[in-house]
Write a structure and sequence with these properties.
Blueprint (H helix, E strand, L loop, with lengths): L1 H24 L7 H14 L1 H6 L2 H14 L8 E5 L5 H7 L10 H20 L2 E6 L2 H4 L7 H4 L3 E6 L8 H4 L4 E7 L8 H11 E12 L5 H15 L12 H11 L1 E16 L2 H11 L14 H15 L1 E2 L5 E16 L17 H4 L1
Parallel strand pairs: 1-2, 1-4, 2-3, 4-5
Antiparallel strand pairs: 5-8, 6-8, 7-8
Helix pairs in contact: 4-5, 5-6, 10-12, 11-14
Protein backbone atom coordinates (compact mmCIF):
# COMPACT_ATOMS: atom_id res chain seq x y z
CA UNK A 1 0.00 0.00 0.00
CA UNK A 2 2.84 2.35 0.92
CA UNK A 3 4.58 1.52 -2.35
CA UNK A 4 1.39 2.27 -4.28
CA UNK A 5 1.04 5.64 -2.51
CA UNK A 6 4.71 6.40 -3.17
CA UNK A 7 4.32 5.57 -6.86
CA UNK A 8 1.23 7.75 -7.02
CA UNK A 9 3.18 10.62 -5.42
CA UNK A 10 5.97 10.15 -7.93
CA UNK A 11 3.46 10.17 -10.78
CA UNK A 12 1.80 13.28 -9.37
CA UNK A 13 5.17 14.98 -8.97
CA UNK A 14 6.19 14.06 -12.53
CA UNK A 15 2.86 15.32 -13.86
CA UNK A 16 3.30 18.58 -11.99
CA UNK A 17 6.80 19.03 -13.37
CA UNK A 18 5.55 18.28 -16.88
CA UNK A 19 2.68 20.74 -16.49
CA UNK A 20 5.05 23.40 -15.18
CA UNK A 21 7.37 22.79 -18.11
CA UNK A 22 4.52 23.06 -20.60
CA UNK A 23 3.26 26.22 -18.93
CA UNK A 24 6.75 27.72 -19.01
CA UNK A 25 7.17 26.94 -22.70
CA UNK A 26 3.71 28.19 -23.67
CA UNK A 27 3.37 31.22 -21.37
CA UNK A 28 3.47 33.58 -24.33
CA UNK A 29 1.45 31.41 -26.71
CA UNK A 30 -1.68 33.42 -27.33
CA UNK A 31 -1.77 33.05 -31.12
CA UNK A 32 -1.83 29.98 -33.32
CA UNK A 33 1.16 30.75 -35.55
CA UNK A 34 0.64 27.76 -37.86
CA UNK A 35 -2.96 28.71 -38.48
CA UNK A 36 -1.98 32.34 -38.99
CA UNK A 37 0.51 31.30 -41.69
CA UNK A 38 -2.28 29.42 -43.50
CA UNK A 39 -4.63 32.41 -43.18
CA UNK A 40 -2.06 34.85 -44.57
CA UNK A 41 -0.99 32.63 -47.46
CA UNK A 42 -4.41 31.59 -48.76
CA UNK A 43 -5.63 34.67 -50.68
CA UNK A 44 -2.24 35.71 -52.17
CA UNK A 45 -1.83 32.15 -53.51
CA UNK A 46 -5.39 31.68 -54.86
CA UNK A 47 -6.33 35.22 -55.91
CA UNK A 48 -3.41 37.71 -56.04
CA UNK A 49 -5.62 40.42 -57.59
CA UNK A 50 -8.07 40.27 -54.70
CA UNK A 51 -5.16 40.24 -52.27
CA UNK A 52 -3.77 43.46 -53.76
CA UNK A 53 -7.16 45.21 -53.47
CA UNK A 54 -7.08 44.97 -49.66
CA UNK A 55 -3.59 46.44 -49.21
CA UNK A 56 -5.00 49.91 -48.47
CA UNK A 57 -4.18 49.81 -44.75
CA UNK A 58 -0.62 48.50 -45.17
CA UNK A 59 0.07 50.97 -47.98
CA UNK A 60 -1.18 53.87 -45.86
CA UNK A 61 0.97 52.82 -42.89
CA UNK A 62 4.01 52.38 -45.17
CA UNK A 63 3.50 55.93 -46.46
CA UNK A 64 3.31 57.32 -42.92
CA UNK A 65 6.49 55.40 -42.05
CA UNK A 66 8.23 57.05 -45.00
CA UNK A 67 7.09 60.47 -43.74
CA UNK A 68 8.75 59.74 -40.40
CA UNK A 69 11.94 58.38 -41.97
CA UNK A 70 12.31 61.61 -43.93
CA UNK A 71 13.21 63.43 -40.71
CA UNK A 72 16.23 61.17 -40.16
CA UNK A 73 19.18 62.46 -42.15
CA UNK A 74 21.64 59.59 -41.86
CA UNK A 75 22.29 56.95 -44.55
CA UNK A 76 20.99 53.39 -44.24
CA UNK A 77 23.28 51.08 -46.16
CA UNK A 78 21.61 47.84 -45.07
CA UNK A 79 17.96 47.74 -43.97
CA UNK A 80 15.83 44.84 -42.73
CA UNK A 81 12.09 44.97 -43.46
CA UNK A 82 10.93 42.65 -40.69
CA UNK A 83 7.56 41.11 -41.51
CA UNK A 84 7.57 42.77 -44.91
CA UNK A 85 4.36 41.21 -46.29
CA UNK A 86 4.54 41.63 -50.10
CA UNK A 87 6.83 44.64 -49.93
CA UNK A 88 4.53 47.55 -49.09
CA UNK A 89 7.44 49.59 -47.77
CA UNK A 90 9.58 49.12 -50.90
CA UNK A 91 6.60 49.61 -53.21
CA UNK A 92 5.59 52.90 -51.61
CA UNK A 93 9.18 54.11 -51.76
CA UNK A 94 9.08 53.64 -55.53
CA UNK A 95 5.62 55.01 -56.32
CA UNK A 96 4.52 58.63 -56.54
CA UNK A 97 1.40 60.13 -55.03
CA UNK A 98 -0.53 61.75 -57.91
CA UNK A 99 -1.86 65.27 -57.62
CA UNK A 100 -5.63 65.59 -57.67
CA UNK A 101 -7.53 67.98 -59.86
CA UNK A 102 -7.04 71.64 -58.93
CA UNK A 103 -4.91 71.02 -55.79
CA UNK A 104 -4.57 73.90 -53.35
CA UNK A 105 -1.19 75.20 -52.26
CA UNK A 106 -1.06 73.05 -49.13
CA UNK A 107 -1.87 69.83 -51.03
CA UNK A 108 0.67 70.69 -53.72
CA UNK A 109 3.41 71.30 -51.13
CA UNK A 110 2.63 68.14 -49.15
CA UNK A 111 2.49 65.85 -52.19
CA UNK A 112 5.65 67.29 -53.73
CA UNK A 113 7.52 66.95 -50.43
CA UNK A 114 6.36 63.35 -49.96
CA UNK A 115 7.44 62.33 -53.45
CA UNK A 116 10.83 63.99 -52.92
CA UNK A 117 11.23 62.17 -49.60
CA UNK A 118 10.56 58.86 -51.34
CA UNK A 119 13.41 59.47 -53.77
CA UNK A 120 15.79 60.58 -51.02
CA UNK A 121 15.09 57.59 -48.77
CA UNK A 122 15.26 54.90 -51.44
CA UNK A 123 18.59 56.29 -52.68
CA UNK A 124 20.00 55.95 -49.15
CA UNK A 125 19.29 52.20 -48.98
CA UNK A 126 21.89 50.08 -50.73
CA UNK A 127 20.48 46.71 -49.62
CA UNK A 128 16.95 45.91 -48.47
CA UNK A 129 16.27 42.51 -46.89
CA UNK A 130 12.56 41.68 -46.98
CA UNK A 131 11.72 38.96 -44.44
CA UNK A 132 8.33 37.31 -44.06
CA UNK A 133 7.07 33.93 -42.85
CA UNK A 134 4.80 33.35 -45.87
CA UNK A 135 6.43 32.57 -49.21
CA UNK A 136 3.12 33.14 -51.02
CA UNK A 137 2.81 36.63 -49.54
CA UNK A 138 6.48 37.50 -50.05
CA UNK A 139 6.56 36.42 -53.72
CA UNK A 140 3.17 37.81 -54.73
CA UNK A 141 4.60 41.04 -56.15
CA UNK A 142 7.89 39.63 -57.36
CA UNK A 143 7.25 40.94 -60.89
CA UNK A 144 5.79 44.32 -59.96
CA UNK A 145 7.52 47.47 -61.34
CA UNK A 146 8.90 48.63 -57.99
CA UNK A 147 11.42 45.77 -58.04
CA UNK A 148 13.10 47.40 -61.05
CA UNK A 149 12.70 51.00 -59.88
CA UNK A 150 14.34 50.43 -56.50
CA UNK A 151 18.02 51.37 -57.01
CA UNK A 152 19.48 49.09 -54.34
CA UNK A 153 19.55 45.33 -53.95
CA UNK A 154 16.36 43.60 -52.76
CA UNK A 155 16.70 40.21 -51.05
CA UNK A 156 13.61 38.20 -50.15
CA UNK A 157 13.89 35.81 -47.21
CA UNK A 158 11.25 33.34 -46.01
CA UNK A 159 11.66 32.90 -42.25
CA UNK A 160 9.59 32.74 -39.08
CA UNK A 161 9.61 36.18 -37.45
CA UNK A 162 9.06 34.62 -34.04
CA UNK A 163 11.72 31.90 -34.26
CA UNK A 164 14.35 34.38 -35.50
CA UNK A 165 16.59 31.52 -36.61
CA UNK A 166 17.37 32.31 -40.27
CA UNK A 167 20.98 32.82 -41.36
CA UNK A 168 20.35 36.49 -42.11
CA UNK A 169 19.36 37.01 -38.45
CA UNK A 170 22.11 35.08 -36.65
CA UNK A 171 24.83 37.71 -36.94
CA UNK A 172 24.61 40.57 -34.45
CA UNK A 173 25.27 44.25 -35.23
CA UNK A 174 24.67 43.97 -38.99
CA UNK A 175 21.74 46.25 -39.97
CA UNK A 176 21.75 50.04 -40.02
CA UNK A 177 17.97 50.10 -39.62
CA UNK A 178 15.07 47.71 -39.07
CA UNK A 179 11.61 48.63 -40.31
CA UNK A 180 8.55 46.62 -39.30
CA UNK A 181 5.02 47.51 -40.37
CA UNK A 182 1.88 45.76 -39.07
CA UNK A 183 3.37 42.34 -38.37
CA UNK A 184 4.43 42.40 -34.71
CA UNK A 185 0.86 42.06 -33.41
CA UNK A 186 0.83 38.33 -34.35
CA UNK A 187 3.99 37.45 -32.41
CA UNK A 188 3.50 35.59 -29.14
CA UNK A 189 6.72 36.57 -27.36
CA UNK A 190 6.90 40.24 -28.33
CA UNK A 191 9.57 41.20 -25.74
CA UNK A 192 11.93 38.55 -27.12
CA UNK A 193 11.23 39.58 -30.72
CA UNK A 194 12.10 43.20 -29.91
CA UNK A 195 15.26 42.08 -28.11
CA UNK A 196 16.27 40.07 -31.18
CA UNK A 197 15.67 43.09 -33.42
CA UNK A 198 17.87 45.13 -31.11
CA UNK A 199 20.62 42.50 -31.32
CA UNK A 200 20.88 42.51 -35.13
CA UNK A 201 21.05 46.32 -35.27
CA UNK A 202 24.40 48.06 -35.40
CA UNK A 203 25.20 50.27 -32.38
CA UNK A 204 23.15 53.46 -32.69
CA UNK A 205 21.00 51.65 -35.29
CA UNK A 206 17.40 52.65 -35.88
CA UNK A 207 14.26 50.63 -35.27
CA UNK A 208 11.10 52.09 -36.75
CA UNK A 209 7.97 50.03 -36.37
CA UNK A 210 4.21 50.21 -36.47
CA UNK A 211 1.91 47.84 -34.66
CA UNK A 212 -1.86 47.48 -34.58
CA UNK A 213 -3.01 48.05 -31.03
CA UNK A 214 -5.27 49.91 -28.67
CA UNK A 215 -8.92 50.01 -29.65
CA UNK A 216 -8.51 48.68 -33.18
CA UNK A 217 -11.82 47.49 -34.64
CA UNK A 218 -13.67 48.55 -31.50
CA UNK A 219 -16.84 48.88 -33.59
CA UNK A 220 -16.64 45.23 -34.65
CA UNK A 221 -15.57 44.08 -31.22
CA UNK A 222 -18.44 45.73 -29.33
CA UNK A 223 -21.03 44.68 -31.90
CA UNK A 224 -20.02 41.02 -31.74
CA UNK A 225 -19.86 41.06 -27.95
CA UNK A 226 -23.31 42.59 -27.55
CA UNK A 227 -24.83 40.27 -30.17
CA UNK A 228 -23.36 37.17 -28.58
CA UNK A 229 -24.45 38.24 -25.10
CA UNK A 230 -27.96 38.76 -26.39
CA UNK A 231 -28.19 35.52 -28.38
CA UNK A 232 -25.99 33.13 -26.42
CA UNK A 233 -25.68 34.63 -22.96
CA UNK A 234 -21.87 34.73 -23.15
CA UNK A 235 -18.92 35.88 -25.23
CA UNK A 236 -16.18 34.16 -27.25
CA UNK A 237 -12.81 35.75 -28.19
CA UNK A 238 -13.76 36.89 -31.70
CA UNK A 239 -11.11 39.63 -31.97
CA UNK A 240 -7.45 39.15 -31.06
CA UNK A 241 -5.96 40.85 -27.98
CA UNK A 242 -3.76 43.83 -28.82
CA UNK A 243 -0.95 45.76 -27.17
CA UNK A 244 -1.76 49.16 -25.68
CA UNK A 245 0.09 52.42 -26.14
CA UNK A 246 1.09 52.63 -22.47
CA UNK A 247 2.85 49.25 -22.65
CA UNK A 248 4.99 49.90 -25.72
CA UNK A 249 7.54 52.14 -24.03
CA UNK A 250 8.35 49.58 -21.32
CA UNK A 251 8.62 46.83 -23.95
CA UNK A 252 11.14 48.84 -25.97
CA UNK A 253 13.15 49.79 -22.88
CA UNK A 254 13.22 46.17 -21.79
CA UNK A 255 14.52 45.19 -25.25
CA UNK A 256 17.43 47.64 -24.92
CA UNK A 257 16.26 50.60 -27.01
CA UNK A 258 16.83 54.21 -26.02
CA UNK A 259 15.69 57.69 -27.13
CA UNK A 260 12.18 56.45 -27.78
CA UNK A 261 9.52 58.22 -29.79
CA UNK A 262 6.00 56.76 -29.61
CA UNK A 263 2.77 58.05 -31.05
CA UNK A 264 -0.56 56.65 -32.18
CA UNK A 265 -2.85 57.44 -35.08
CA UNK A 266 -6.36 56.22 -35.83
CA UNK A 267 -6.93 55.25 -39.45
CA UNK A 268 -10.66 55.03 -40.21
CA UNK A 269 -11.72 53.02 -43.26
CA UNK A 270 -15.33 53.70 -44.16
CA UNK A 271 -17.87 52.60 -46.71
CA UNK A 272 -18.45 48.96 -45.78
CA UNK A 273 -22.04 48.04 -46.70
CA UNK A 274 -22.31 45.41 -43.97
CA UNK A 275 -20.33 43.47 -41.40
CA UNK A 276 -19.77 40.58 -43.82
CA UNK A 277 -17.90 42.87 -46.24
CA UNK A 278 -15.59 44.01 -43.46
CA UNK A 279 -14.90 40.42 -42.37
CA UNK A 280 -14.18 39.42 -45.98
CA UNK A 281 -11.60 42.20 -46.27
CA UNK A 282 -9.97 41.13 -43.01
CA UNK A 283 -9.90 37.55 -44.24
CA UNK A 284 -8.32 38.56 -47.57
CA UNK A 285 -5.70 40.52 -45.63
CA UNK A 286 -4.97 37.47 -43.50
CA UNK A 287 -5.98 39.47 -40.42
CA UNK A 288 -8.81 37.30 -39.13
CA UNK A 289 -8.79 35.96 -35.58
CA UNK A 290 -6.03 33.47 -34.77
CA UNK A 291 -6.22 33.18 -30.98
CA UNK A 292 -5.61 29.64 -29.72
CA UNK A 293 -8.87 29.72 -27.73
CA UNK A 294 -10.94 31.13 -30.59
CA UNK A 295 -14.38 29.81 -31.47
CA UNK A 296 -14.35 28.18 -34.90
CA UNK A 297 -17.95 28.95 -35.77
CA UNK A 298 -19.98 32.17 -35.78
CA UNK A 299 -23.72 31.42 -35.76
CA UNK A 300 -25.78 33.17 -38.42
CA UNK A 301 -28.19 34.69 -35.91
CA UNK A 302 -25.27 36.25 -33.99
CA UNK A 303 -23.83 37.66 -37.21
CA UNK A 304 -27.17 39.19 -38.25
CA UNK A 305 -27.67 40.69 -34.81
CA UNK A 306 -24.11 42.07 -34.80
CA UNK A 307 -24.71 43.69 -38.19
CA UNK A 308 -27.77 45.56 -36.90
CA UNK A 309 -25.99 46.61 -33.70
CA UNK A 310 -23.02 47.81 -35.76
CA UNK A 311 -25.32 49.95 -37.93
CA UNK A 312 -27.26 51.40 -35.02
CA UNK A 313 -24.22 52.21 -32.86
CA UNK A 314 -21.52 53.10 -35.40
CA UNK A 315 -23.18 53.42 -38.81
CA UNK A 316 -22.65 56.52 -40.94
CA UNK A 317 -25.56 57.78 -43.01
CA UNK A 318 -24.65 59.25 -46.39
CA UNK A 319 -26.43 61.98 -48.37
CA UNK A 320 -28.48 59.30 -50.13
CA UNK A 321 -29.67 57.88 -46.82
CA UNK A 322 -27.63 54.67 -47.13
CA UNK A 323 -25.93 53.61 -43.88
CA UNK A 324 -22.37 52.32 -44.21
CA UNK A 325 -20.02 50.92 -41.59
CA UNK A 326 -16.63 52.40 -40.58
CA UNK A 327 -13.70 50.39 -39.24
CA UNK A 328 -11.09 52.05 -37.02
CA UNK A 329 -7.50 50.82 -36.94
CA UNK A 330 -5.40 52.24 -34.11
CA UNK A 331 -1.78 52.14 -35.27
CA UNK A 332 1.07 52.69 -32.82
CA UNK A 333 4.24 54.10 -34.40
CA UNK A 334 7.52 53.59 -32.54
CA UNK A 335 11.08 54.79 -33.04
CA UNK A 336 13.92 53.41 -30.94
CA UNK A 337 17.70 53.48 -31.16
CA UNK A 338 20.13 50.78 -30.15
CA UNK A 339 22.30 52.04 -27.32
CA UNK A 340 25.74 53.33 -28.21
CA UNK A 341 28.51 55.28 -26.51
CA UNK A 342 28.31 57.86 -29.30
CA UNK A 343 24.72 58.78 -28.48
CA UNK A 344 23.95 61.99 -26.56
CA UNK A 345 23.86 61.28 -22.83
CA UNK A 346 21.91 63.13 -20.12
CA UNK A 347 23.94 65.27 -17.74
CA UNK A 348 24.52 64.07 -14.20
CA UNK A 349 21.93 64.90 -11.60
CA UNK A 350 22.51 68.31 -9.99
CA UNK A 351 24.50 69.86 -12.85
CA UNK A 352 21.65 72.06 -14.09
CA UNK A 353 22.32 75.81 -14.19
CA UNK A 354 18.74 77.08 -14.35
CA UNK A 355 16.09 76.60 -11.68
CA UNK A 356 12.64 75.48 -12.84
CA UNK A 357 11.19 77.85 -10.24
CA UNK A 358 12.60 80.80 -12.16
CA UNK A 359 11.27 79.49 -15.47
CA UNK A 360 7.80 78.65 -14.23
Amino acid sequence: MLGLVFRRRLATSASAEKAASVAKNSQFNVFDRKNKLIQRSKTPALDPVKSRKVEYLRDEVATRTIERLAFITRDFTKVLDFGSHSGNFAKNLCEETPLGENPNEEELHFTTQLNNDRVTIRNKIKELVMLDSSKEVLDRDLNEPFNEIFPGKITRVVADEEAFDHECLKESDQYDAVVSNLSLHWINDLPQALANINRVLKPDGLFMGSIIGGDTLYELRTSLQLAELERKGGMSPRVSPLVHLNDVGSLLNRAGFSMLTIDSEDIVVGGFPDIVSLCEDLQSMGEQNSVLSRANFLPKDVLLAANEIYKSMHGEEGPDGVVTLPATFSVIFVIGWKKSETQPQPLKRGTGQVSLKDVL
